[in-house]
From TrEMBL, chains A, B, C, D:
Gene Ontology MF terms in the entry: FMN binding; NAD(P)H dehydrogenase (quinone) activity
GO cellular component, one term: membrane
Alphabetized Pfam families for the sequence: FMN_red
Domain Flavodoxin-like: 6-192
Lineage of producing organism: Bacteria, Bacillati, Bacillota, Bacilli, Bacillales
Family: Belongs to the WrbA family.
Organism expressing this protein natively: Jeotgalibacillus campisalis
Protein name: TrpR binding protein WrbA
SUPFAM superfamilies in alphabetical order: Flavoproteins
């Protein structure tokens, strides 16, 4: 496992998906991938952020995480998206970035990118499945190769059992209710493993 | 058919969904509903708009159409969403507005709103179905009542046959490839008809 | 709440969805609805059933529950489907029944039926959301009115928080891991409440 | 392109998806894959088949096409599913087969199978997208790798533009309304190309 380039693209208002992204980064680096952790640009008005102390704090803490660019999408062989749910879909911050990819899409630059996704919600069945599935639907338009974890490792069972991608429930205080660290790491390894196969086959 | 308040909420860069919205408005007014046609606020950078003459022109033409507000969602008994597809999902403009509804949602203000949706895409199977279904998934979080047209009228068959909501294919020059005006009007009438029933039952 | 006719249509191999169906029945009867609990006909080979003691036992126990028929679909004003997941979709037993509804569909006999759905799975995120959403997609073809519970009552939060419909996780021994009885009952009441409104409006 | 084993698994009542399957077979053989065309076992009652002359005729014509078995799923590196829609989902014949895969699933035998899907419907937007997406959702449970065509070749644009998989509209007389032969062939080649990469990487 050597030459895979992985972009971990997340949106996080209060830190959960940033944590998921960092776990994925650790596993991917250990597996020898080149990794970038990138955030979807914040598009919410400053006053909305300022009104929510946890959001404000996380916003300040992650100011130095680079915003994802189209160049990153072209650079990477594989993407892992990590995002909270907004009514069973990704937040507008993620969608706004995806909406800018028309040029790459039109020129076939996103074909055969290997992708997987993770999500969080405040309720155990609060849209975690739907959010991940909606991202995959979009990425199929790109010609991406969807590498959902399924039950490819027993860790899926012990971490909530979401076959579409690792997901976690977060309580009002921001605590994760399932222990998903190992599931995230498995998903990261699997994503780059499949990207490695595709790289070997196409380069 | 009298006291239904209908919000037709659309996003349109070059005019297709604005046209669908206006057809829906005409039918709804004729059926006696109080109707507002409202656009999702444009969130794209001005330079992106300026770079696309058709987008720029439509943007200028519809400057006076009010942006949808949370107050409109509370006011209306029924919503019809009309939106182009962005990779099988609604554009960020629509999602950004939906992401602001947390307060209404939390206070149960969106429960029993009667909803339906319409979509457009450049390819006949380019995400029309997926886009509408993704909106319904989100609206289920609100506790909305989904009134997809199904095949409740023969017009669905002659206008492309999308049971989830009226959808249309638009070519590179902005021409609609199916004749959907009557299907839009049927959908509008059906949406307010069901909203009328709900109004009578709850007021 | 008086004249609503409700068909609770379930499939159950080892009893979970039968239990959900019976809770729904109790609440619906208390609310004054006429209720039928009906099972999707078993289509699995007898040897498969015989090889699984829990399945065999439940199969024998529920021999007297009538199989759902097309006549029941026509009779009822509202349906509640309750079904385990099979890879994020309803089992073939449910789909086989739905596949027989072409005649009713073609003649518009399923238009404006008010529907909601429930599901179970062995993993907390094991397809509960996807299974319910796939049923709603199908019922939109019928012209049904989808009355997902959303968060229309606080009980949704305390029972797993699935806005699409009540869902439950079942362990290897058949125990339900969430307490969903009250959520099922709320969903049943809500389904018939909306069916009542539709009845009043159309009859 | 040599050692890929491809199972083309279809259901067809009157011949459309059989034709799609045969086009896929031709392209896959030309690309050097070992190919089996396999049908989902017919589960409809004989009287239903007998009552529909076109169904009866196709049923007799394809009597010698082997029914797909669990062994075939294990044998193949890649699967292409081809199926009509039944209300935005695959028919019970397909689902019944999928429901028998629990043993393979539990033992991880379906992990990393490369899959894609095709569909048909009588209306241009009559569930083609939803049907394919619902199959992918299920296959994610298997740990399969989803290789939807996206717009990886211009032929997608000229054949209806369904990025999730090739789909076709069939009129009352069984005529296909779009020319999808080349799109089917592209999808077959792409599916085995990606399976080749995975084979090389894992064997």
């Amino acid at each position: 496992m050597s030459n895979v380039k992985l972009a971990i693209i997340y949106y996080s208002s209060t830190g959960t998906n940033y944590k998921l992204a960092k776990w994925a980064e650790a596993a991917a680096q250990e597996a020898g991938a080149e990794v970038k952790v990138l955030k979807a640009e914040e598009t919410a008005p400053q006053q909305a952020i300022a009104a929510n102390p946890a959001w404000k704090e996380h916003y300040e803490e992650t100011k130095d995480v680079p915003n994802v660019t189209l160049h990153d999408l072209e650079w990477a062989d594989a993407y892992i998206f990590s995002t909270p749910t907004r009514y069973g879909s990704a937040p507008a911050q993620i969608r706004a970035f995806m909406d800018t990819t028309g040029g790459l899409w039109f020129n076939g630059k996103l074909v055969n990118k290997v992708v997987s996704a993770m999500s969080s919600a405040q309720n155990p069945h609060g849209g975690q499945e739907a959010t991940i599935l909606s991202l995959y639907t979009s990425m199929m338009h790109w010609g991406a190769i969807i590498a959902a974890p399924g039950y490819s490792d027993p860790v899926t069972f012990s971490s909530g059992g979401n076959p579409y991608g690792t997901s976690v429930t977060v309580d009002q205080d921001g605590n994760m209710l399932e222990d998903v660290e190992e599931a995230v790491k498995h998903q990261a390894r699997r994503t780059i493993e499949i990207a490695q196969m595709v790289n070997n086959g196409t380069k």
